[in-house]
UniProtKB/TrEMBL annotation:
It comes from the Bacteria. One of its GO terms (molecular function) is carbon-nitrogen ligase activity, with glutamine as amido-N-donor. Pfam families: YqeY. SUPFAM superfamilies: GatB/YqeY motif. This is GatB/Yqey.
């Protein structure tokens, strides 16, 4: 796992232990375990983008679980999941604003020469490289469809 993130997680874990924050400590351990699992799966230390993809996956899983708990009327569990999401997001880069997303998409459309929905794959490849971890790919896809459609 990326060295800076690993050091930050260890420091946060120590602080959570000293403060007796069991939920935060649990989330830190969960994140460390997920990062370690990915490291073992890939067979090498994670770089920044690989670490970010693990954190992004955890955030998406927690958001999905929170939505399911909300549908089931379990607000207590929903709040726990959302607090974990908030914690995990502290390890992610600042999200792009809607204006920045539109600018990136417009630039990608211009760079790729896209004119129709058939060119969406080319545009998404460029956009994904520029916005990795800083935007929801589903949202990006919707904006690209709107621009090309």
């Amino acid at each position: 796992m990326e060295r800076a993130m690993q050091e930050q997680l260890v420091a946060d874990m120590k602080a959570a232990m000293k403060a007796g924050e069991k939920d935060r400590l649990s989330a830190i351990r969960m994140l460390r375990a997920a990062l370690k699992d990915k490291e073992i799966e890939l067979g090498h230390a994670l770089d920044a983008s690989e670490s970010l993809s693990v954190v992004t996956r955890l955030v998406k899983q927690r958001n999905d679980a929170a939505a399911q708990y909300a549908d089931a009327g379990r607000d207590d569990l929903k709040e726990k999941e959302l607090s974990e999401v908030a914690f995990f997001q502290t390890y992610m880069p600042e999200p792009l604003s809607d204006e920045e997303l539109v600018a990136i998409i417009d630039q990608a459309i211009a760079d790729s020469g896209a004119t129709s929905m058939r060119d969406m794959g080319k545009v998404m490849a460029i956009v994904k490289a520029k916005a990795e971890g800083r935007a929801d790919m589903g949202k990006l896809s919707g904006i690209v469809k709107g621009r090309l459609g």
